[in-house]
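The records we work with from here on pair a chain with its fold. These numbers are not coordinates but entries in a learned vocabulary of local backbone shapes. To see the layout at work, look at the sequence and tokens printed below.
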Amino acid sequence: MNDFINQLHNHRSVRTFTDKKLTQKQLDAIMGAAIQAPNWINGQQVSVIVVIDEERKRRLAELSGNQKHIDDAAAFLVFCMDYSRAKHITELHDKKLEVMENIEAVLVGSTDVGIALGTAVAAAESMGIGTVPIGGVRRSPAEISELLELPELAFPISGLAIGYPADPLPAQSPRIPMEAFYHKETYVQNQREAVEEMDKRQQDAIKVRTGETKAHPWSERIAAFYSERYKEYGKVTDVLKQNGYDYK
């Protein structure tokens, strides 16, 4: 394969950063890649706020669940789904932005954010810059929107902390078996076996790293999150509704 494919295959999240600053040229290159990412109907439903101000990063770290790596990162990128442009466009042509009354707006905006964020990750890593996505920006969406002066119809979906890794790159996190992810022609019902294998892979990885196994396997942690901990993000629906996302 080529170097770019190898880079993608070697991805891992970085949560400890040096004090080394990024240049404006590097930030511009990352953003230049992200803006070229595919998006629905070329409607360009994404805006990115790049934060390097230390005080603003510190506040974002607090609002995102006290995640210190946001504060330590050279820059924190907040990826927003943004229909404020679409609102101007529909008004320009005497139309109504009716998509805001449909969940399709959230699906499209979130998908486009994910594509742009993944592109930014690849661009940053090509320059030796470490990254870690931060979903915690959705813990306090109203406060973050105010801090970043977001307009109506712009909503923070995910952050991306970037900077030079302070330590040797961490080991890659295990993944589910490829056959549970990569289905040929039709879906194969094999998820129970995949979960059991993932639990084993995670425990093996932890034992290699620490010499011990973890009391709570991967599947237990995921089950706890989707049954209880997701409630820490409970403000999302209300803030979306207040911000013009009037889907039924």
Q: What stands out?
A: The radius of gyration is 20 Å. DSSP finds eleven helices and four strands in the chain. The first strand starts at residue 46 and ends at 51. The first helix runs from residue 3 to 9.
